[in-house]
Amino acid sequence: MASAAALFALAAVGVLAWIVGINSGAERFGTVPPRTVNGATFKLTNGSGHPSGTSFVLESAQDGIVTLSAEIPPFAAEKYPRIEWDLHSADPPAELAFAWRTRENPRRTYSKPIYWVGGRVAPLKLDENEGWRGTITGVALVARGALPAPLEVRSLTLPSTTAGATLAETFTQWGARFPLKGYAISFPFDAERAHFMAIVKTLAIACGLAMVVYLGIAHLRARRIDWRVPWAIFAAAWILLDLRWQINLGREVVAAAAQFGGKTGDERVLASDDAQLVALALEFKRVLPPAPARVIVLSDSSLMALRVTHFLLPLNASRNALPRNVERDFGKAPAPSRDTLRSGDHVVLLFYNGLRYDADRRELVWPDGGTRLAEIVVARPEALLVRVI
Amino acid sequence: MLDAIALALSIAVPWVAGALCIRAATARSPQSLAIAIGYGYLAGMFGTTLVMRALSLAGIRWGVTWIGAPVALLGLAAYFRIRSVEITRGVTLRLGALATLTGLARAILVLLLALTCARLAMLAVQVVLVPLVPFDAFAQWASKARVWYEYGHMVPFVSGAEWARTAGALQFTDTHPEYPGTVPLFQVWTALWLGRWDESLINVPWVVACAALGIACYAQLRRLGLGPVKAMFGTYVLLSLPYLTIQVALAGMADLFVAIAYGMAAIATWQWTITRQRSDAGLALLIAIVCASVKFEGSVWALTLVPGVVTAFNRRIGLWMMGAAAAAAAVYLTFGPAALRLFGYALRTQFVDVSMPVYEHMFVMDNWHLLWYAVIGVVAFHWRTLFDDRLAPMSVTMLAAIAFIFVVFFFSTAAGAVEDETITNRLVLHAAVAFVFYAALILSSRRQESEAVPLYA
User: Fold this and answer.
1) Is there a single domain that holds both residue A321 and residue A173?
2) pTM score
3) How many C-beta neighbours within 10 Å does residue A33 have?
4) Of A186, A198, A342, the CB nearest to B364
5) What ipTM was estimated for this complex?
6) A133-160 tens-digit pLDDT
7) Which residue of B has its CA nearest to A192?
8) Are B133 and A182 a contacting pair at CB < 8 A?
9) Any idea what the CATH number is for the domain that residue A82 is in?
10) Do A170 and A132 fall into the same domain?
11) How far apart (Å, rounded) are the C-alpha atoms in residues A373 and A329?
């Protein structure tokens, strides 16, 4: 068993060294301090926005583009092969790119797309072939297309890429928390895409290496293979992986206890991440009639419509299932047909553009100009509950 | 405190009744009590939903007494049957051979058991605290449960179009009104005991089912002849799979029950291919029905057990059947219609390459720890024996399961959902329990061969 542990540890160290080797910069054993440029340091060259504290908030595009750039103290590209943007947005833009200029080729602007992974921007790895060479003199953030929501640019960081810093960063990545939010039911480990190497792959390689070495040694020495050794290697790798997962689970339990502990069922629901939406639904629910009276929830956000509908149950509520049965439709829901609305039906309008309520005329107004008489039951800045007359 | 008692009873009544019924049915066979306990929860909960459906049909409003009484009576009848049957204890394998273990083995066993219990405890706390989170959980499962709980019977759910047409009728709609009611009925049963709707506590069946799966898995592994440490390691591996635990931590979706039911049914089927005991066949059939009742895909999963059964009767016919199915699939891909609606999926003849997200989720990200590396390794090392008399039924079952996943991933409208990664892990999860046991079977088979000891002496 000791030989299994030793082989596995050696293999793991070997793989770790390889990860550090390919992810560190030119000066692996030198001194490369990290650099951070705050969002407020950047200047807007296209679009609209404003500095806010140490950040810069981008609000809208001009001719379909927003550009934020900064002149920075020049540095050698090879020392900083990675960059990290700290951006925040409720609804990130579809197309984002990092752009830069070099002293050697000042007329040319190089760029590389930026991707959102697990609610944050994935770090960018840059190399010579993409133009990340020579001396970098300026950097920029470019967003193409309309901004669905304000984009807060907090900072740009050029992390240190010495061997020690890269090793520390590797362990930070592996030790990061994986929050158990709604998206986690489909892709809980999405953030691992941004890791130097996912821990499973690392341990699988280490496991394989250790087993091959053991089998090789046994073969060369004409020894009988003790199959307990490969199994011990596998078990060690599995338990190591699982300890990480157990710790993550423990963190989630602590977070859940802080958020929901000591509360009643109703209080827990009102302590959810979307508590405002729940409160709104419950407010509507108090004034709505029982089934079979119908309630149609309309929102451009399918998720919000579904959440409100859920909290309206067991009233006869439906997110916009009109005029067709919407199946996993995350797009904008169409307005219900006028013909299918009956007197006494209730309609919730929640951040919805497909149907408008004219308070002066007491009418629901369809995009084609068609109308239906309706009266307000509850009016809130973000939502409206009306009853069809 | 009252909630805790109510929850305990909502768990205990179906579990004890289910375990007693299974024990009564298998009393003369070499199955352990642990198997009855492991399978008992799912069987008992399924029986409870049948009672609920019957009451709903009869127009009787649900109540704990109305539902619980027949379930408890059934359990009581099973108890008296067990007492009246002379149990041949001599052939029952003992599960706790702890006394024979070395100090190191005992320490490993305790470590694995502690890790498993700690995980289950954390999952239980998480389930009890966190209200429904996943999109599908409140869009198509709890939606039905919420309404049915309020009305005390199964009020119809209809399509959105029908709902829009018919104002004034007492009918509801959600994202998938056609989905089976078994899982929502689990939630209603729990809510009935609580006496109120609680967005967190209704999900307690998820964590209990997970614990029951652990017991069933350990007992079945022991039945294969594995020692306590190896059986515990297999159980630990199964219950440590991150994606499986996430389904419990973010409870509310039906996929966990499909995975558990399919896995348990496959294991019982495979035990039957070895023992030819009617009790194993009965258990397999019962749990396969549960699997089919949970989700539409459950029916297809249950059908993937058929080739294995045929192979168990006649290996040549079974293998020929698999070959014929593969040939038919090839002909369909060449000459078939562009799309064909089947089991809620539209089968397409056009190949959609989703191999990258599948690879990333199975081999790069931590969804499955090292499971798929291990399965591939075990299969590759034992490829010569996979289709021998003993392992052929199991291998054929797993081939059918792989074929199902492959078709859904690469030749159906679900490919979009695989590409955007919303179902990649969920469909794989359905087969994960079976795969873990299949790997253990292959390994135990090698041990049997080397030691030349019959499995069921």
Assistant:
1) no
2) 0.90
3) 10
4) A198
5) 0.91
6) 999 999 999 998 878 788 999 999 999 8
7) B365
8) yes
9) 2.60.120.260
10) no
11) 29
